[in-house]
Amino acid sequence: MIQLEHVTKTYPKASRPSLDDVSVSIEKGEFVFFIGPSGSGKSTIIKLLLHEITPNKGRVYVNNKDVTSMRSWKIPTFRRTIGCVFQDFRLLPNRTAYENVAFALEVIGKTKAVARRVVPEVLELVGLGGKEHRYPHELSGGEQQRVAVARAFVNRPLILLADEPTGNLDPDTSIEIMRLLDRINRTGTTVVMVTHDSNIVNQMRRRVIEIESGRIVRDQARGVYG
Amino acid sequence: MRLKYVLSEVMVGLWRNVTMTIAMIITMAVSLTMLGASGLMYLQVDAMKDAYYKDIEVSIFLDASVTDQQRAELQTELESDPLVRKVKHETKEEAYERFKELFADSPDLVNAVQADKLPESFRINLVDPEQYQQIFDKYKDREGIDDIIDQRRLLEQIFNILGAIQNMALVSASVMAIAALLLVANTIQVAAYSKRREVAVMKLVGASNWFIQAPFVLEAVVAGLLGAIIGFGALVLGKIFLLDGSLRDLTDLLTPIRWGTVLLMLPFMATVGGLVSAITAWVTLRFYLRV
Ligand SMILES: Nc1ncnc2c1ncn2[C@@H]1O[C@H](COP(=O)(O)OP(=O)(O)OP(=O)(O)O)[C@@H](O)[C@H]1O
Ligand SMILES: [Mg+2]
Questions:
Q1: Residue A205, Cβ neighbours under 10 Å: how many?
Q2: Which domains does chain A carry?
Q3: What whole-number distance in Å separates Cα of residue A140 and Cα of residue B96?
Q4: Strands laid side by side in the B58-62 sheet
Q5: Shortest Cα–Cα distance, A9 to chain B (Å)
Q6: Ligand 1 pocket, A145 CB below 6 A?
Q7: H-helix segments, A50-140
């Protein structure tokens, strides 16, 4: 499903590589935590999987496609198979919860009718039933992140990437978002999550991959934080 | 659905920054007016060349003291000359008739000239009007010839002036076009900045590149087309109030510019305005959005 083969990434002007000869393989339906100190290269992995950046060396496979050699015009279609959640939610402030989710559908060519059918369903799923018409500033952080998860999931992606999705949330709210991601994982979606939250990692007991200075130092099934 | 989305985005985009939009449209309009005017002038000069060069003449004026034999010899020689297409002899009386006709407005002048004071001449059409010099060299020293005059020379001076005006219009059109381009580029940047969140989300969820770019490009195209329409309006007003109005006397000398020709400028200006805006917007987006 996801495979990195000897991937090295050095940003332009950077003195040392952010990822150094990283190889990792993630199967369909897995739930994987990436942990590690700040600056170790976790977000860089997410960006590589999204094809926001390309590696200097090595290959990246997502959904069995070689992302490294993908033509640029194919990237949009490729991204439709991936959902994304970030620490800062990235919602459109001038659109309601419903409109934020519907926007993601409409800009990839789905009709309004499809949106009317699917969006309430997925908002219900993330526990936002009844708050569809609130604007982001009328929602709590946890609720905003639910909208973001709904947007990432509405297209039924094969993979869900989450870069510190609970980074801005309090522990209780974080646990709720975690439950949500867990439920999404149980539908068969592969989930890759970057986190600093030891509580969550220790509670979930899922595969844990630890990175330090751009190298994998631990890869443990049913692991704990550290 | 997607079309409706794109179109509403375009309208919102144009409204969001009305002052910029207006500035963009005005510079577009001025530039395209200049362009249209020089396009008209180009077609006009071409039409005039066709009309005048067709019956352009070289006049060979004869001495007052020319003998009948000299005249007859010259005529047979001209008629058998391979450079010459047509020869016409104009007597003193015919020259006077033409003179009276030409200056019918100024009877004093006509009265002041006696009928037999105007020279008689051969009016010849050349096979190739460019070969005037050969005719001139061949006949200039002939007895009985007073002067050889090429009408083409006179016309060419007029065309040179028209050409200079046309070049000036083209230069000012280009200068205005640069201003218009910069304004389009700037407007697109501002638009892209104010929609950066939407664009980021669109890229994230996999909206196609054309879908991300289309509203911006169309915004510029609409401004370009509006500019072309306004510029065309300016040309129409120019024809009504200048060419057919205050400059009437001047334009009567030239062949008139027909409405059909003016109308031809609309698709021309619209195409240039639309294309230039679209390309500028697209190039700007490539640098600015990196989509
Ligand atoms: N665009 C960039 N240009 C240059 N260097 C970069 C760039 N992005 C990241 N880096 C560097 O790459 C390294 C890894 O960055 P990355 O964002 O992957 O870290 P991270 O593990 O996600 O950290 P954090 O936990 O703080 O989010 C860091 O040393 C960072 O300074
Ligand atoms: Mg990070």
A1: 11
A2: 1-81+159-226 (3.40.50.300), 89-156 (no CATH)
A3: 101
A4: B84-90, B121-126, B58-62, B145-150
A5: 20
A6: no
A7: 75-79, 97-106, 112-125
Alpha helices in A19-80 (DSSP H): 42-49, 75-79
A107/B207 CB distance under 8 A: yes
Q: Could you tell me the pLDDT band of residue A55, with boundaries at 50, 70 and 90?
A: very high
Contacts of A78 in chain B (CB under 8 A): 206
Q: Does A93 touch chain B (CB under 8 A)?
A: yes
ipTM for the predicted complex comes to 0.90
Q: What is the pTM of this model?
A: 0.75
Give the tens place of pLDDT for each residue, A133-154: 999 999 999 999 999 999 999 9
Q: Which of A76, A79, A109 lies closest to B2 in CB terms? A: A109
Q: A51: CA distance to ligand 1 center in Å?
A: 16
Q: Is A37 in the pocket of ligand 1 (CB under 6 A)?
A: no
Number of H helices, E strands in chain A: 7, 10
- The string of pLDDT tens digits covering residues A13-42 is 999 999 999 999 999 999 999 999 999 999
DSSP-based three-state secondary structure for A94: coil
Catalogue all structural domains in chain B, each as residue range(s) with its CATH number. Answer: 2-52+156-288 (no CATH), 64-143 (3.30.70.3040)
| Residue to test with chain A: of B203, B204, B205, B211, most A Cβ within 10 A | B205
Q: Which helix (H) or strand (E) holds B227?
A: helix B209-238
Query: Which tens digits make up the pLDDT trace of A81-135?
Result: 999 999 999 999 999 999 999 999 988 989 899 999 999 999 999 999 999 999 9
Partners of B58 in beta bridges: B124, B150
Contact yes or no for A18/A41 (Cβ under 8 A): yes
**Cβ within 8 Å of residue B253, ≥6 positions away:** none
Q: Which residue of B has its CA nearest to A93?
A: B197
Question: Mutation test of ligand 1: which of A4, A7, A44, A49 has the most ligand atoms closer than 8 Å to its C-beta?
Answer: A44
A192: β partners: A32, A161
Q: Distance (Å) from the C-alpha of residue A57 to the closest C-alpha of chain B?
A: 23
List of chain B residues with pLDDT < 70: 1-2, 55, 250-255, 290-291
Sheet holding A65-66, edge to edge: A19-26, A2-9, A57-62, A65-66
Best A53, A81, A107 member to test B by mutation, with max B CBs in 10 Å, is A107
**CA A157 / ligand 2 centre spacing (Å):** 22
Residue A5: predicted pLDDT:
96
